[in-house]
């Protein structure tokens, strides 16, 4: 074999190993890459959370994802509507710089409604300040 063919063979082997290695890593990687964007609209947040937690998602999984995104979750029961679940809040952080306007930041409250099997059945989303036009 010539030096050129050795390099081509080596490049092919490295490419094959990197492709199979990456896909094997993806199969075993349990890292949750979902990120909640504070600056989205309430409607966008509702659609995003509905895609993250379709009906039947275990409540523990949903709460874990919310907490990884900075939410603080606690059990809640609303008697008037007979709703039970978890209330998750994402507060507006205090600005570190005096020039930063707090109005540019959004806070969120999300209620994950659960059934008897402790799975998500409904998601209620609130944003403050409200979206323009709401």
Q: Keywords, please?
A:
4 strands; 4-stranded antiparallel β-sheet; single chain; 134 residues; 2 domains; alpha+beta
Q: Strand content of the residues, in percent?
A: 15-25%
Rg is 22 Å
Mean of residue pLDDT values: 77
N→C terminal distance: 72 Å
Low-confidence stretches: 4-29
Fraction in helix = 25-40%
Beta strand count: 4
Number of domains: 2
The biggest beta sheet reads: 4 strands, antiparallel
Oligomer: single chain
Which strand order do you get reading across the main beta sheet?
Answer: 1-2-3-4
Question: Nutshell version of this structure?
Answer:
With 134 residues, the protein is α+β, with helices and mostly antiparallel strands. The chain contains three helices and four strands; from the N terminus they run H-H-H-E-E-E-E. It is globular and about 50 Å long.
Furnish the topology, listing elements before pairings.
Layout: H1 3-28, H2 42-52, H3 59-68, E1 72-78, E2 83-90, E3 107-114, E4 120-128
Antiparallel strand pairs: 1-2, 2-3, 3-4
């Amino acid at each position: 074999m010539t030096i050129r063919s050795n390099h081509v063979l080596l490049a092919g082997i490295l490419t094959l190993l990197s492709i199979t290695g990456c896909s094997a890593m993806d199969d075993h990687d349990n890292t949750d890459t979902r990120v909640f964007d504070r600056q989205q609209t309430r409607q966008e947040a509702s659609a995003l959370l509905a895609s993250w937690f379709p009906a039947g998602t275990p409540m523990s999984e949903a709460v874990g994802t919310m907490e990884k995104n900075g939410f603080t979750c606690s059990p809640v029961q609303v008697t008037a509507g007979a709703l039970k679940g978890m209330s998750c809040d994402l507060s507006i952080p205090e600005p570190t710089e005096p020039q930063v306007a707090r109005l540019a930041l959004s806070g969120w409250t999300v209620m994950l409604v659960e059934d008897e099997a402790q799975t998500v059945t409904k998601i209620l989303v609130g944003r403050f300040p409200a979206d323009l036009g709401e």
